[in-house]
Amino acid sequence: MNIAIIGAGGVGGYFGACLVKAGFEVTFVARGEHLQAIQRDGIFVKSIHGDFATGPVRATDRITGLANPDLLIVCVKAWQINGIRDDIAKIIHPGSIILPLQNGISAADELSAATGRSFVLGGLCRIISKIESPGIIHHIGIEPYIVFGELDRSQSERLIILKKVFEQAKISCRVSDDIEADLWKKFIAICVSGLLAVARANYGEIRTIPETREMMISLLQEVYDLAIRIGVHIEDDFVAKTVAFIDTYPTDSTSSLTRNVWDGKPSEIEYQNGTVVRLALQYGVDVPVNRFVYHCILPMEQRARLMTARSTG
Asked: DSSP for 110-139?
């Protein structure tokens, strides 16, 4: 199977390296010094489960330079999807599978607008990882796994094939019979990232201080209530389960959105708390904590995007 990893950051770099290690033909799409390091030395993964290196691998900075990929795992930031989807549409063949692993709930729909819905699966992953330095991925916490499923909830042959690929690479995975619900479950949990950014706190701090823990739980409950109002099927005790899961995160861990806001970089805020605020207005659900978080980050987000546009313009 010819596999393309579009975005070789903490997520794509880690899972792509696992696929290379298992012997699959993998090409990475990356940029800048990270791309150069991958082309020269491959990817080195520092992991809580043991370090490993891929050795030299194929890598490019052009999606259109990929040759007829059978599987495209899309790992760029959620806000970057619209900018690359037309290039993805140019390189797929009739049997191609597109698996987006973005935070949020809109990636599959945004990709489908360019490629057609039949190519795209719904997907998500759980892992705390980041680029530590060019060519080096640091897996900091959480047992990595991938969940994927057909957008129409059908059980297809390609789901079986993809599951075998991940199992061969020793990547924990699950085929979902309701990928919409699974996407929302992750979405609910990741919206805490914005609260971390506003509080300038890690998960350990946010969950142990009574006042911020209460805010965290309220934020989760708001997103859960919104999901139920929309008609997503999620179990009644999901918020309690999510809090218990967050309590297992490494004390000093954060999220990519949190770090991006702190570093003055564009973030996924529009695809997390911003999406909550917009959908809540549409469905008549009150989300005061999410609205507070979103509006606090919005000026920083606008500043970051303006600075990025000036530096690249």
From this structure: HHHHHH-GGGBPEEEEEEEEEEEETTEEEE
Burial class (CB in 10 A: 0-12, 13-18, 19+), 211: exposed
Q: Do the Cβ atoms of 276 and 294 come closer than 8 Å?
A: yes
Query: Which of the 8 DSSP states describes residue 120?
Result: B
Q: Across residues 90-110, what is the average pLDDT?
A: 95
The phi, psi pair for 110, rounded to 5°, reads -65, -40
How many domains does the chain fold into? Answer: 2
Query: Which run of H or E residues covers position 59?
Result: strand 58-60
CB count in 10 Å sphere of residue 179: 21
Are 70 and 116 found together in one domain?
yes
State which H helix or E strand residue 174 sits in. Answer: strand 172-175
User: What is the distance, to the nearest Å, from the Cα of residue 34 to the centroid of all Cα atoms in its chain?
Assistant: 19
Residue owning tokens 């290690």: 21
User: How far, in Å, CA of 75 to CA of 301, rounded?
Assistant: 21
Listed residues 154, 177, 200: the one ending a domain: 177
pTM: 0.91
Give bridge partners of residue 133 from the DSSP assignment: 136
C-beta separation of 111 from 146 below 8 A:
no
Q: Are 304 and 77 in contact (CB under 8 A)?
A: no
What sign does the dihedral 280-218-100-175 (CA atoms) show? negative
Contact 29, 38 (CB under 8 A): no
Maximum pairwise Cα distance, the chain? 54
Residues 198-246 pLDDT 10s: 999 999 999 999 999 999 999 999 999 999 999 999 999 999 999 999 9
Bridge-based pairing of strands 44-47 and 136-149 is parallel
Residue 140 near residue 250 (C-beta atoms within 8 A): yes
CATH code at 120?
Answer: 3.40.50.720
The reply to whether 29 and 109 lie within a common domain is yes
What is the domain extent for residue 24?
2-177
The distance of Cα 217 from the centroid of its chain, to the nearest Å, equals 22
